[in-house]
Amino acid sequence: MTRTSCNGCGRLNKRHRPPFFAIVSLTFLYARLHTQTLATGKSACEHRYPDFLYFMPLKSNGYMNNVVLRRYWSILLVSLLLSCSPPGRTGSVQKEKGRPGNYQVYLLMGQSNMAGRGILTGEYTGIRAERVLMLDRENEWVPARHPLHFDKPKVAGVGPGLSFGAALAKVYSKDTIGLVPCAVGGTAISKWEPGAFDEVTRTHPYDDAILRLKAARKRGVIKGVIWLQGEGDSNPVSAKKYLARLTALIERIRKEAGDPELPFVVGELGRYRTQYRLVNEQLALLPKTVPFTLVVSSEGLVHKGDTTHFDSPSATEYGRRFAAGMLLLQKR
């Protein structure tokens, strides 16, 4: 093990010490799976997989296959490697005095399901996540809470953003996660172009997002984007143009962020409305054409009764799926 000193004092820098807890946890989990194999006669890949990988496809018997198992171990290894990386290797994020670790900044973009329309009950209004902040309407960093977005204050509710940030904060246990809400309800993808104006909200969705990106970058490095949009383009004419427009949007965002490999995770539209298949079919083609992108599944998620917006539990689950997808991309 390489010894590094702090300010010449000769002491071993804590950031370079072996990640003891991570190693023990990984070893214990392997031993548990191996013990299950001996006790039940089932291979490790026949045991049910963890909740945060729920977006992965199941076999018909409800057990995870070898591909899912490999992805599961990949995420664990990413966490292990991140925990023992030397300073600067997890991203050149600026530190803020008085807070532990670095700042990782993520953009939340799309329309109403990203903004969140889940019903706000006491269960959700009181949720806070340690080391998760949000950039508010005044471009001030405040503790993240529901609702994150302010596009339409009268209807804003529970979305995927907070659970996304909380899931990342558990993995990056020394870092602060900064969420930048940019979604605007009711916007077609054509509104996410430079200069485009949304008459309903009296905003410029793309231009405003870039301004917030620049404000957020003063705190830390942009580490990724999650995108959930397409309900407004679920018609035969718009759907045909959707992939090209989304590809162009990703290129613009990456250029503004100064990172041509910026992870971009896209969510499927809800599977509860037939016409949404038009956009979902286009989304499925994205990872094949644009590198460092990934599509997470909406399978099993339900609407709140309006056949359009995810209910609060589904929006919360979707945030975890977005986080799992982001971790996979960051591993590449």
Remind me, CATH topology of the largest domain?
Answer: Rossmann fold
Largest sheet: 7 strands, mixed
Tally of domains: 2
CATH architecture of the largest domain: 3-Layer(aba) Sandwich
Q: For the terminal residues, how far apart are their CA atoms? A: 26 Å
How many helical elements? 10
- State the total count of DSSP E strands: 7
Overall mean pLDDT: 80
Task: Catalogue the unreliable spans.
Answer: 1-69, 75-100
Biggest sheet strand line-up: 3-2-4-1-5-6-7
How much of the sequence lies in strands comes to 5-15%
User: Percentage of helical residues?
Assistant: 25-40%
The CATH superfamily of the largest domain is identified as SGNH hydrolase
Domain Sialate O-acetylesterase: 103-326
Pfam family, one: SASA
Organism: Niabella drilacis (strain DSM 25811 / CCM 8410 / CCUG 62505 / LMG 26954 / E90)
InterPro entries: Carb_Esterase_6, SASA, SGNH_hydro_sf
